[in-house]
Amino acid sequence: MESFDHIPKIEKTKTKKLKIGIVVSKWNKQITNNLLKETIKTLTKYGVKESNISKTEVPGSFELIFASKKIGQKKNIDIVIAIGCIIKGETPHFEYISNSVATGIKDLNLLLQKPVIFGVLTTKNIKQAINRSSGKTNKGQEFAISALEMAKI
Ligand code: DLZ
Fold it and tell me: Which residues contact 8 (CB under 8 A, 6 or more apart)?
């Protein structure tokens, strides 16, 4: 079982004013919705106000790049979290989309003056995707904590 075992010290007074823009893909919606819920739950657990979290939906993971750029360019956003799920299939799409999204999000981290968290699952199959988006292994927790840790830099 994978675990996120390096939870940093997060002071609620510092997270209270953070404005977080979440961009979420509707492709594999059941999975991305669970990731989204866990991300928001963890952000609010550590003091982020729910009213300071915005949500933007896009059709698929490929569109996370453009939308994250637009959201990240807004003055009232401190951090962007891009959430998606790409499941390996019979087609070569998996490699094309995964590589493009990872490179696109990496580029935004260099371009924008704020962090863009890579909250994209790239899994072999649906079973693996379900595992990484439910219960204690829900990666939404990791996305939220990574965002809060990056906010300190
Ligand atoms: C086309 C496509 C495929 C085959 N698989 C996925 C996937 O597993 N996860 C995902 O988020 N999106 C997928 N897409 C859609 C692309 O991301 C994109 O929305 C379309 O190619 C339109 O640009």
Answer: 145, 148, 149, 152
- CB of 87 within 6 A of ligand 1: the answer is yes
Q: Which atom of ligand 1 is nearest to the CA of 64?
A: 17
Using one digit for the tens of pLDDT, what is the confidence trace for 52-93? Answer: 999 999 999 999 999 999 999 999 999 999 999 999 976 678
Domain presence at residue 103: yes
Number of domains in the chain: 1
Query: Which structural domain, as residue segments, surrounds residue 27?
Result: 13-151
90-110 residue pLDDT tens = 667 899 999 999 999 999 999
The CB of 27 under 6 Å from ligand 1? The reply is yes
> In angstroms, what is the span from residue 23 Cα to ligand 1's centroid?
15
Let me know if residue 31 belongs to a domain: yes
Q: 3-state DSSP call for residue 66?
A: helix
Is 7 a member of any domain? Answer: no
The catalytic site residues sit at: 93
Q: Distance between CA 114 and CA 101 in Å, rounded?
A: 18
